[in-house]
Amino acid sequence: MLPNRMQLNKSVEEQLKKLKSQTGITPNVAARIAFFKSIESNFKFQHDKNYLLNGTLVLDKFTWLGRTQVITELLLKQKYPDLDNRGLHAAWASHVENGSSNIRNHTSLYSIIKKETGCDT
Questions:
Q1: Tell me, what CATH number does 76's domain have?
Q2: What pLDDT shows up at residue 112?
Q3: What are the C-alpha distances in Å from 65 to residues 3, 35, 49, 117?
Q4: Are the beta carbons of 54 and 11 closer than 8 angstroms?
Q5: Domain range holding 88?
Q6: Average of pLDDT values for 35-57?
Q7: Burial code of 50-72, b = ≥16 C-beta within 10 A, e = fewer?
Q8: How far is CA 93 from the centre of its chain?
Q9: Structural domain count of the chain
């Protein structure tokens, strides 16, 4: 479903790199967190607009998605059944962009978890 080589929008890529310098969370793991935060927020990708995938960090699908690959692809296919592989790639990148805005100001993985769970331990 998703192509084997994937990239993000350049501005999102920069946000994820900045987050890595603040938290130590690698861009691919941060992208996974951002994607699922976006899905949880009911964000809807506007496929009628041309979404730019112009980042320089081009990674294979398994590196970007890791063990979340199957569920990520299933969620995208369920949410956007009419999109082709290229459209699903843009939808994934758009969701990462949307979700990254929620985590970009954190200073640690702990602060992201604390915010999401409300747990202080």
A1: 1.10.1220.160
A2: 72
A3: 12, 10, 24, 23
A4: no
A5: 5-117
A6: 92
A7: ebebebebebebeebbeebeeeb
A8: 6
A9: 1
Say whether 17 sits in a helix, a strand or coil: helix
d(CA 87, CA 116): 29
CB-CB neighbours of 28 under 10 Å? 16
User: Do 66 and 28 contact (CB within 8 A), yes or no?
Assistant: yes
pLDDT per residue over 47-81, tens digit each?
888 888 999 999 999 999 999 999 999 999 999 99
- pTM listed for this prediction: 0.89
Query: Who's near 104: CB < 8 A, 6+ residues apart?
Result: 15, 18, 19
Q: How far apart are CA 69 and CA 14, in angstroms?
A: 23
Judged by average pLDDT, the poorest of 3-17, 20-34, 74-88, 101-115 is: 101-115
- pLDDT for position 46: 92
The CA-based diameter of the chain, rounded to the nearest angstrom, is: 44
d(CA 10, CA 45): 18
